Amino acid sequence: MSSTTLALPRPTTPTHGAFTRLWGAFGAGTLADGVYQVALPVAALHLGGGAGSVALVLMAARAPWLVASLHVGVLVDRVDRRRLLLLVSGVRFAVLAVLAGLLTAGWGSIAALAAVALTLGVCETVFDTALHSSTPRVVPGERLEAANSRLQATETVANRFLGPALGGVLVGAATAAAFGAVGALYLAAFAALLGLRIPHVPPPAARESVGRALRTGLSALWRDRPLLSYALGGCAVNCGFAAYYVALPILALEPGGLGLTAGGYGLLLAVGGIGGLLTSMASPTLARRFSVRHCITAAAVLLAAGFAVPAVTNRVPLVALGVVATGAVVLISVVTVSYRQRAVPDEMLGRVTAAYRMFAFGGLPLGSGLAGLVAGFASSRLVFPIAGALVLVAGAAMSLATPREKVPTR
């Protein structure tokens, strides 16, 4: 596979109802993630932890992207993706119910929080890989940017707007209530998936060994220069994102520089969702009118600027404006995900998506660890310019590797 000769996914019959259900399950799950991203660090702080504990639980939630992605990709390519999505949603609900019970009984601890975060991280790896690998089966090629923009808009509203605001209110009342709500939302995702029908693509007659399947996915990623650059650039971008979101609650929550309550912190993140929502709505138009290179470059500059704001001010409106600017990452995601979905054959999409995300999302635990070290040995405020520098370097590398020609639709 190369940037000039692209193997397209085999055609399937798109079904509007299937995408609607997939979209609904994604919306419920990502709203749960939005509540969870506020509840997790706040719960760690409420249990007596500091910057190290926040970094630990966030690293546990994100580590599966680094250590389990490749095997998840093989799984997604070999089993019924609908059943996999249902199973993961059920496990998520059960795990959150247990955590809510532990916290209600007063048995919560940083270790228990980290264990649950690790389990949910594995579930997230499976769910997201299966969902994004299913999208090209139910959406025609010329509509991929629109479908991915719709998913990104939903993620922005639910994960960065409604979820954090709801999470801040719930965790301010009772930590167990916040995690209970997360479990209920995962149950709603399970219900949305019950009627899902994904067009069947027969597996290859001769099944590869797991080891060979892993190598095949990695090899396909390695041979496609733009796709590899997006994966490695995504690693740096996500490293910066994770570092930013370790340092931000430390600065924002009392007794930090911004002096916010848990509810105020949730609202800060919610305001940030505005930028992501606007970018999601504009992404299909921007992708049509401007080159992918220009889209990536502009988004990276805006994202880096947003990351850097808390390094120089404690004024809440300015920090909120910086959080809004971080929504520019949506444009990078839309154009790179759409490229991957067009460039990779369906029978390999799970493995290549997983290999891609191993590199890209592997930056999340690395960023959490980096922020913990910098905050522990220097200052949490130093984390912000470091995150911005990572994004600028990544944006430049991805832009230079982007082909000038468009990837043909199916």
UniProtKB/TrEMBL annotation:
PROSITE patterns assigned to the protein according to its UniProt record, in alphabetical order? MFS (PS50850)
Q: What membrane topology is annotated for this entry? A: Multi-pass membrane protein
List GO molecular-function terms, semicolon-separated.
Answer: transmembrane transporter activity
**Gene Ontology CC: one annotated term:** plasma membrane
Q: Which UniProt keywords apply?
A: Cell membrane, Membrane, Transmembrane, Transmembrane helix, Transport
| Main location as per UniProt | membrane
Q: What sequence ranges are listed for the domain Major facilitator superfamily (MFS) profile?
A: 1-406
Q: Does the keyword Cell membrane apply?
A: yes
Q: Where are the transmembrane segments?
A: 50-72, 84-110, 169-194, 227-246, 258-278, 290-312, 318-337, 358-377, 383-401
Pfam families noted in UniProt: MFS_3 (PF05977)
Q: Which CDD domains match?
A: MFS_MefA_like
The entry's protein name is Predicted arabinose efflux permease, MFS family
Q: Which organism is it from?
A: Micromonospora mirobrigensis
